[in-house]
Amino acid sequence: MKPSAASFSLSPSFWRGLRAFLPLVPGILPFSLVTGVAAVQAGFSPVQSIFFSVIGFAGSAQLIASQMFKSGTPTILILLSALVVNLRFAIYSAAMLPVLSRASKLWRWPLAYVLTDQNFAVMAARPADELNPVQYYAGASAVMWLTWQLGTVAGALLGAGIPAAWPLDFAVPLSFIALLVPVLKTRPQLLAALVSGAVAVAAHGLPYRLNLMVGAACGIAVGLYVQNLRAKSVNKDVQA
């Protein structure tokens, strides 16, 4: 069913998506808290930090932009780095197209604005018989958006009182690891994750965080290669 602007009432699918996202909240809160703290320690006021989070709503890009702003990096380089870090959302958007094309044009804008790693993962793992994936995604996104904003507000308000030397950054990779591990269910997926991580670390010296894109590309290539090998092996056994 294609929801219109007037008929976007909350259905059971919305609440299913909301409940599916709840287990990720403990991992998102420290990440958003760190982002709020980083913005204040970079020189933004708490109000500016909160507006930055509401307008940007970009997770790792917010964190990187704050760090680069603090080090005096030119604005154009900050924008380019944020663009590179967020290139993965081009892949997410392409994958989400079959879902979002069911929504009215008015709703596609806010639904695209709330797209993140976390609610994309929840959507990818949704039940195959989910009747209304648009509302399922909206429910998951509502929890994500609210959790993120509450965390960054808390971080922005507490930021001035937290010593910069405290190693709070550890929460960022931990939140992504907690998101990734439950979806690694097959050998190609596991190999793709291991290769992408290893390559990204090995290519850490590349500028503008390009190591992330290189690692992702290598992981995808290895995962597809192993998956194709397994498919050919299965077909060969069937024909035999």
Automatic annotation (TrEMBL):
Record's keyword terms, sorted: Cell membrane, Membrane, Transmembrane, Transmembrane helix, Transport
GO biological process, any: L-valine transmembrane transport
Protein name: Branched-chain amino acid ABC transporter permease
Localization per Swiss-Prot or TrEMBL: Cell membrane
GO CC terms: plasma membrane
Topology term for the membrane: Multi-pass membrane protein
A Pfam family annotated for this UniProt entry: AzlC
